[in-house]
Design brief:
The chain has 177 residues and is of the alpha+beta class. It has two domains: 82 residues, Ubiquitin-like (UB roll); 83 residues, Orthogonal Bundle (DNA polymerase, domain 1), CATH 1.10.150. It is globular and about 55 Å long.
């Protein structure tokens, strides 16, 4: 039985980069496709479309997510921040500044996802959330020191085909200071 568009679509309101945006979307529309195809926010990239490369990383209520794995309707009423939303007018976010200063990109395709992931990484470490490589003897509750190993572990969901990893780690270290 075929459904009409109205039977498989919903109006959903997302808070995107600080602005409420109402969209009528097919229930199967991913957050990534809603951002790119319906809101023209093309900074977020579609890489593998399977949640394996991290090019589509955005912040959902301040936590990093792969936009290609979430249905937009499941994000209704939540706050989405894309790489475009990290700037303050013409002023870059400190992570964006560090990526430029440390030449932490080559082709740039993965960069928006890398930057969003790095912003979340800094917040997670500041909250004291451990990673797989966080030493167990670290005092609980305090911030996690961001060693190069800690940064690499926390960024492992973001792939750079050009291999700019040393500069990405250096940029995150700089932004953490």
């Amino acid at each position: 039985m075929d459904q009409t568009l109205s039977e498989r679509a919903s109006t959903v309101t997302l808070r995107v980069n600080g602005t409420d945006r109402s969209l009528t979307l097919d229930h199967r529309t991913t957050l990534l496709d809603a951002l790119r195809d319906h809101l023209d926010l093309t900074g977020t990239k579609k890489g593998c479309d399977h949640g394996q490369c991290g090019a589509c990383t955005v912040l959902l209520d301040g936590r990093r997510v792969n936009g290609c794995l979430l249905f937009a309707v499941a994000c209704a009423g939540r706050s989405v921040t894309t790489v475009e939303g990290l700037t303050d007018g013409e002023v870059l976010h400190p992570v964006q500044e560090a990526f430029v200063a440390r030449d932490a990109l080559q082709c740039g395709y993965c960069t928006p996802g890398q930057i969003c992931s790095a912003v979340a990484l800094l917040d997670e470490a500041a909250r004291g959330e451990p990673s797989h490589v966080t030493p167990p003897e670290r005092l609980p509750g305090g911030p996690v020191p961001l060693t190069p190993d800690e940064i690499r572990e926390r960024m492992s969901g973001n792939i750079c085909r050009c291999g700019a990893y040393p500069n990405i780690v250096a940029a995150i270290e700089e932004a953490a200071r």
